[in-house]
Amino acid sequence: MILEMKVPSPGESITEVEIAQWLVQDGDYVEKDQAIAEVDSDKATLELPAEASGIITLKAEEGDAVAVGEVVCLIDTSAEKPEGEVPAKEKAPEKESPKKEEPKSKTDSNSNKAETKTYATGTASPAAKKILAEKGVEASQVSGSGKDGRITKDDAVNASISMGTPTGGTRGESRSKLSMLRRKVAERLVSAKNETAMLTTFNEVDMQPIFDLRNEYKETFKNKHGVGLGFMSFFTLAVVRALKLFPSVNSMIDGKEMISYDFCDISIAVSGPKGLMVPVIRNAENLSFRGVEAEVKRLALRARDGQITVDEMTGGTFTISNGGVFGSMLSTPIINPPQSGILGMHNILERPVAIDGKVEIRPIMYVALSYDHRIIDGKESVSFLVAVKEALENPKEFLMDNNIKKALEL
User: Fold this and answer.
1) 225 catalytic, yes or no?
2) Closest CA to 188 of 314, 92, 67, 96
3) Which of these, 92, 2, 99, 87, lies nearest to 36 by C-alpha position?
4) N or C: which end of the chain has fewer CB within 10 A?
5) Is 235 exposed, middle or buried (0-12, 13-18, 19+ CB in 10 A)?
């Protein structure tokens, strides 16, 4: 029996996918539920499992865009598994036998020696060769004025090269097709810049109070809950508090209407094997420090392993992006449409700051809020970022209700 495998729907509103990579070859025997291909949608990369065991016949090439419901391969379910067949993943590449180098003939050796003694056109004298090497100029680019066109020391001293002239370095280039996910990200970024009135406001946060809390409780927290006490839980809960104070930041435009939400679905930007992905922490307003850290870890691992689903990346109401893990000092993050705000975290560096009239060295992080000015006024955006700042600089009062152990569930 021949089974037609069709492209399943990865999620609502997705009409086509792209074959990113076939994990099997035409004519291979595949087992049921074995991953046979990776497919890119405009939101995620997903694995395509075999629907039955049998011999597979591929009907699409890598890089092809195929519609949802279209046949991509055939599986002959009546075919028996070949005896002693080694799965494709276990097949070792055949080693090429080393080629024996043929000895050079004495005639060639003698001719080379003869050539080195002859100063033909374009040959540099030892002194000229040294000067040309220091200047990064090839001998072939210099006209020699010596006997038989030999390049003299004076020729080398006077040699110059145009900055626009290739100097012998590598000048190769490669061309590769952008994945469907990368193309969609590019479209969304351009759309966000063109279709929103995006502005960015900045502030700085003294991270010393959070450092002190983490140093004191992180080991106990990890031993009890199995996850680390990172910065994301503090930032997420600080954002949730600020969104409740300034609900317009937790809103978005739909035509001529503004939709405001009474829940906080926080998107977190994480780096995956196919590029930037933005999974969502659902109902973050109901989560504790332990709950946020556990969810961040779960989503980050799924994104890293390429297991994140479309549903896990849709529906956020606000985004947090942590460019600091890559060393970013300051940036203007781009809004993740249709959301109206995104908070950018950056690296933490020790900087001199004034504390009670004295200069002290503190761990400082610059933060940036990009927002859609069409529905968020400047006063609200600045006040929102100040609310985030005050919660991070006094987490015991604003995020823990003055009960650290209860907040950390210790």
Assistant:
1) no
2) 314
3) 87
4) N
5) buried
Provide the β-strand partners of residue 71.
6
Residues in the chain: 410
**From CA 43, how far away is CA 267, in angstroms rounded?**
14
The overall pTM is greater than 0.90: no
CATH number, domain containing residue 68: 2.40.50.100
Q: Which residues of the chain have pLDDT under 50?
A: 88-98, 100, 105-119
Please tell me which residue in 64, 212, 373, 401 is annotated as part of the active site.
373
Q: How far is CA 19 from CA 59, 60, 76, in A?
A: 11, 8, 21
pLDDT at 327: 86
- 341 close to 252: Cβ distance less than 8 angstroms: no
* Residue 72 identity: V
Catalytic-labelled residue, pool 33, 148, 212, 377: 377
300: which 2 tokens? 């980050």
- Domain boundary pick from 35, 64, 81: 81
- Distance, C-alpha 105 to centroid of its chain: 54
Q: Is 381 found in the same domain as 247?
A: yes
Residue carrying the six token digits 């569930």: 409
- Residue 127 domain boundaries: 118-158
CA angle 284, 289, 295 (to 5 degrees): 55
CB atoms within 10 A of CB 13: 11
- Per-residue 3-state assignment (H helix, E strand, C coil) for 210-234: HHHHHHHHHHHHHHHHCCCCCHHHH
Residue 110 lies in a domain: no
Instruction: Identify which of 233, 250, 313 has the alpha carbon closest to the alpha carbon of residue 280.
Output: 313
Q: Is residue 163 part of a domain?
A: no
pLDDT of residue 255: 86
Within its chain, how far is the Cα of 66 from the centroid?
25
Q: 373 catalytic, yes or no? A: yes
For the chain, state the CA radius of gyration: 31
Token pair for 77: 């379910």
Distance (Å, rounded) from C-alpha 215 to C-alpha 404? 13
Residue 140 DSSP code: G
pLDDT of 273 reads 66
Q: Tell whether omega for the bond before 103 is within 30 degrees of 0, i.e. cis.
A: no
Q: What's 72-137 look like in SS3?
A: EEEEECCCCCCCCCCCHHHCCCCCCCCCCCCCCCHHHHHHHHHHHHCCCCCCECHHHHHHHHHHCC
